[in-house]
Design brief:
This protein is α/β, with parallel strands linked by helices and about 290 residues long. It is about 20% helix and about 30% strand. The chain has a 7-stranded antiparallel sheet. A 5-stranded parallel sheet has the order 10-9-8-11-12, with helices on both faces. The structure holds flavin-adenine dinucleotide.
């Protein structure tokens, strides 16, 4: 895979992030708690892909009663609307993209009636518009590592699946993935030397039912240089940070490790907290 830094502008400036508007072309229940939306349409022409496996987009959700038409001019809306009426962002991985077909797939965890994105995806209709910024992202599995350690809950399945698919046949590693139960497991394509271990909470996520940290700790520590990709709930991510970074001494630059969501917090609060000590996994820029 090409170096993802290569498409960065010189001088450290961030490229402008215009909004893309796509339509829902199809909706597929790929597991009891995961729904896949295929998005496409004329707006695909403005989708600037990234050569990484953790590509993420920031989907904007506007209050339907305001009747706003995407793409939203956020600067104008910030001047016109009170804070509580501005479209809000939810972050999702691009599971795959197909430049020929002009489509991307996004897999949403359906986690009940709470929140915006989960319930929206569960009930999405063909033709619904989706407005988003991005993609961003930095990680991809690199050949120079001896072992690839991937770990996450359902929210990380799209990025883990994309990473596994991108690996060459000689790469070795493990992917430890926490789901509710066996019915949420799915076929993932991976090289023969990469084990896929599904582990079960046997319940919805809560701080007591999660088993990801213990499963990661139980896995025999591999020889050689290890590249880590570990994402999921915030408190679990903090424990995984302690394990990989503090206990196993993995270099920070060899790790993609952050929280994808926080138990009991909507993404707005969670992202705001990422800028304070309580929300930080490392002292990192938030995604
Ligand atoms: C870089 C990145 C990539 C991500 N990729 C994906 C992806 O591909 N697919 C995906 O589904 N998610 C992904 N996420 C996580 C997703 O952004 C959050 O789960 C988000 O909070 C969902 O928004 P919501 O509107 O459904 O719920 P919110 O309004 O944010 O939260 C409402 C309530 O639901 C709870 N909640 C939120 N998510 C979950 C969950 N997964 N399980 C149980 N309870 C939950 C919250 O704790 C809160 O109590 C990603 C996050 C990041 C930062």
């Amino acid at each position: 895979m090409a170096n993802p830094q290569a498409d960065r502008p010189q001088g450290g400036a961030r490229a402008a992030r215009p909004l893309t508007v796509l339509q829902v072309l199809s909706r597929e229940q790929i597991a009891p708690h995961l729904v896949r939306l295929t998005l496409g349409g004329p707006g695909f022409a403005s989708f600037v892909d990234k050569p990484v496996t953790d590509r993420y987009i920031k989907i904007l959700f506007a209050k339907p009663e305001l009747g706003l038409t995407p793409p939203y001019d956020m600067e104008e809306l910030r001047e016109k609307l009170p804070l509580e009426d501005l479209p809000v962002r939810r972050t999702y991985t691009v599971r795959s993209s197909d430049a020929q077909a002009g489509t991307i797939d996004v897999d949403f965890v359906v986690h009940g009636d709470e929140g915006l994105a989960g319930p929206w995806a569960r009930d999405a209709q063909i033709g619904d518009s989706v407005c988003f910024a991005g993609p961003g992202g930095l990680y991809y599995p690199q050949e120079e590592f001896d072992f690839h350690f991937l770990a996450g809950d359902e929210t990380a399945i799209p990025a883990i699946a994309a990473a596994l698919e991108s690996m060459s046949e000689q790469m070795r590693g493990v992917a430890i993935i926490e789901v509710s139960g066996p019915e949420d497991e799915m076929e993932l394509k991976a090289p023969a030397g990469v084990q896929i271990r599904w582990i079960h909470r046997n319940a919805e996520f809560d701080p007591q039912s999660t088993v990801l940290e213990s499963a990661v700790r139980e896995f025999p520590w591999p020889q050689g240089r290890v590249q880590v990709f570990a994402h999921g709930e915030r408190e679990v991510s903090k424990k995984l940070r302690a394990y990989f970074y503090n206990e196993r001494g993995v270099d920070r630059r060899d790790m993609s490790l952050s929280a994808y969501w926080a138990f009991g917090r909507a993404e707005d609060d969670f992202q705001a907290e990422k800028r304070s000590a309580v929300g930080q996994i490392f002292e990192e820029a938030s995604k």
